[in-house]
Design brief:
The complex is a heterodimer of chains A (313) and B (347). Chain A has 313 residues and is of the alpha/beta class. Chain A is built from 11 helices and 13 strands. Helices cover 33% and strands 26% of the residues of chain A. Classes of the chains: A alpha/beta (313), B mainly alpha (347).
Chain lengths: 313, 347
């Protein structure tokens, strides 16, 4: 269980996280979504006590992480993929962490085995690929078999097999009853992994909801209709209170009424339909809609005006 | 080893016109040689790319129900991660952290290299200086023979060894910041001051052992090179044991000063520059002060305190142990400031 209350972090005059309150419950995978620079990593660093909140507080299992008796047994975190001395071996890195919470030495071997790094355990970590470094970080997070786990962008740098493995691992950890909190800027990844999502933009909480709840939003649902009598249909739909958009391919995108109502309406008016297909917005679109206006680093809008060198023509 | 160093020493001082310039030339050559050897070793180490392992396939009794459309994974359960030992009573202690710090220190090469360089330079420079003096003994003036101090001459390598151990002190802290290891450590042990204390304890033990070894070995080697008719000392000579032990303590203290500076500055290059600046640049700046002030300020400088500590007798401005306490004061100050900043700044 992770509970944040009014969590705020200023870096100088820049507000990285602004009055953020949320809770992450055990037993499900909770995704932490937001565009780059929206404060996800800062929030995770505050949970782990690495950054001090300017205001507010965050509790893990009802207490501050500083009060953990055996920190690795309570909370495991993968915050930076490469928080490893390049000259130290994977085994030595895990051992020095394990020793802080008095974990048995064989625990290190078990985890190296689990993440598939046994064969390279005594190689310098500086020679690891990004994916191997990521797996070592995951092993470090799991060392103490903690009930609360934080992963900051865990699939970065992993190959498709690795991504699938992490997805599976996260779900397995959650279904064991652990609290699993995973950040990502990729909605599509979270759609496959997370049960719940906490969405932030510019340090603000935008929404905490379930993935299904996000998708079933009415504004996200539309119906595509094709008809040889499209104009008549549009007029009829607008009388019913639906909003319609004509698409370039001649179809009509209808929002505000469901496909059954459209079918009934067409039948009663004697309008022939060639297509009547409900459209579910992709999570990507839902995410874009929610974070609209809160993109920290938005690409410059492409201007219609031709680029000139400033001299009058 | 003794033979090699004596050979190297005589090599540097050979030639009809021998004067002190040869010693400094020899030191520079020695430093360059060590650097070249280190670089060559790094360069020719096996750099074959390493094979990627693959993670153990995971499966879980309930995870199939989540059905993400690619569920053909073999049957190792997540329970493979379950830790079967219950947590010990109490909470993590300084001893757990010290064990971890020791693991960190012994598992990076920079520790071994800086220790090798500390020992090699400390012993090597002392050997060169004493061998050169012995070679020139017959041409020395009666007045310089009268003021000759065989003890401090044999410990002269200290002034090179202090830089190597200072680098070690800086690196045990700054390398953790530059690599991000420190964040992993604080996630495992959020009490930062305890982590720092454990680091200081472990480093102190290592530094004292290495520094006292260099100090005693330099003294014994130097005195054996200063064979008759040159004046030489033994550990039984009045003041000799104190100077030798003091020399080791001085080197250790400078290592801890490096550690404290790195806690404050956190960047390797900046911390090493500051450390070198305090020992080399600051004395020069102080000499630019009016003479009346300069003398008073100068005697508080670490290098001057060290120069007094390695003498058995003579013109000490502070008695060796008072000087050492002042030095300890600097070390404590740097580390206390470092500890305060450690808990104030984001990691």
């Amino acid at each position: 269980m992770i509970e944040a209350e009014g969590l705020t972090k200023h870096y100088g005059t820049k507000v990285a996280v602004d009055n953020l309150s949320f809770s992450v419950r055990p037993g499900v995978v909770t995704g932490f979504l937001g565009p780059n620079g929206s404060g996800k990593s800062t929030t995770m660093r505050m949970i782990m006590g690495l950054d001090y909140p300017t205001r507010g507080q965050v509790k893990v299992n009802g207490k501050s992480f500083y009060d953990a008796h055996w920190p690795l047994r309570e909370v495991g975190a993968l915050l930076e993929a490469r928080a490893i001395h390049p000259g130290r071996s994977a085994r030595a890195h895990l051992l020095m962490l394990a020793q802080t919470s008095r974990l048995p030495k064989r625990r290190v071997d078990d985890l190296l085995e689990l993440v598939g790094l046994s064969a390279v355990a005594d190689q310098r970590a500086g020679r690891f690929s990004l994916g191997m470094g990521q797996r070592l970080g995951i092993a470090a997070a799991l060392l103490g078999d903690p009930g609360v786990l934080l992963f900051d962008e865990p699939v970065n740098g992993l190959d498709p097999d690795g991504i699938r493995w992490v997805r599976h691992l996260l779900k397995g950890l959650a279904s064991d009853g652990r609290t699993v909190f995973v950040s990502s800027h990729l909605m599509s990844e979270m759609a496959l992994t997370a049960d719940e999502v906490i969405i932030i933009g510019r340090g603000h909480l935008i929404e905490q909801t379930s993935i299904d709840g996000l998708l079933s939003r009415s504004s996200m649902q539309s119906v595509r209709v094709r008809s040889p009598q499209i104009d008549a249909l549009r007029v009829a739909l607008e009388e019913l209170g639906a909003t319609t958009d004509s698409e370039d391919d001649g179809s009509l995108t209808v929002r505000g009424v469901d496909e059954a109502a459209i079918g009934d309406l067409a039948g009663s008016r004697g309008i022939v339909l060639h297509e009547l297909s409900p459209q579910t917005a992709s999570l990507e679109e839902a995410f874009m809609e929610l974070t609209e206006g809160s993109l920290e680093y938005r690409g410059a809008e492409l201007s219609e005006a031709p680029l000139t060198d400033g001299t009058p023509s | 080893m003794t033979g090699t160093l004596t050979f190297a020493a005589t090599l540097f001082v050979a030639g009809p016109e021998r004067h002190r310039g040869h010693v400094f030339g020899g030191v520079i050559l020695l430093v360059v040689a060590v650097v070249i050897v280190v670089l060559l070793v790094q360069r020719f180490r096996n750099r074959k790319p390493i094979a990627e392992g693959s993670p153990t396939a995971l499966s879980h009794s309930t995870s199939q129900a989540h059905g993400n459309g690619n569920g053909n994974v073999a049957t190792v359960t997540v329970s493979a991660l379950t830790l079967d030992t219950p947590p010990p009573s109490g909470r993590y202690t300084l001893i757990d952290l010290a064990r971890s710090e020791w693991t960190k220190m012994r598992t990076v090469r920079s520790t071994m290299w800086t220790i090798v360089v500390t020992v090699a330079l400390g012993l090597g420079v002392s050997a060169i200086a004493t061998a050169e003096t012995r070679a020139n003994w017959s041409t020395m003036s009666p007045s310089s023979i009268h003021s000759f101090d065989p003890i401090s001459l044999s410990l002269i390598g200290t002034f090179i060894a202090q830089f190597a151990i200072g680098v070690l002190g800086v690196l045990v802290v700054s390398a953790e910041y530059s690599t991000g290891t420190v964040r992993a450590v604080f996630c495992a042990a959020p009490h930062r001051r305890s982590v720092l204390l454990a680091k200081i304890l472990v480093f102190t033990v290592v530094a004292v052992v290495v520094a006292e070894f260099v100090s005693f070995a330099s003294f014994l080697l130097g005195q054996s090179l200063l064979s008759s008719p040159a004046i030489h000392a033994t550990l039984a000579t009045p003041g000799a044991l104190g100077a030798v032990v003091g020399c080791g303590l001085y080197i250790s203290a400078l290592g801890l000063l490096g550690l404290g500076l790195a806690m404050i500055i956190r960047h390797s290059a900046a911390a090493i520059s500051t450390f070198v600046g305090i020992l080399l640049i600051l004395p020069i700046l102080v000499q630019a002060l009016p003479n009346s002030i300069a003398v008073d300020v100068r005697r508080f400088m670490p290098d001057r305190i060290g120069a007094d500590m390695i003498k058995a007798n003579g013109s000490n401005v502070f008695s060796p142990w008072v000087g050492f306490l002042i030095l300890v004061g600097y070390v404590v100050a740097a580390n206390v400031i470092g500890a305060i900043l450690l808990t104030r700044r984001d990691a």
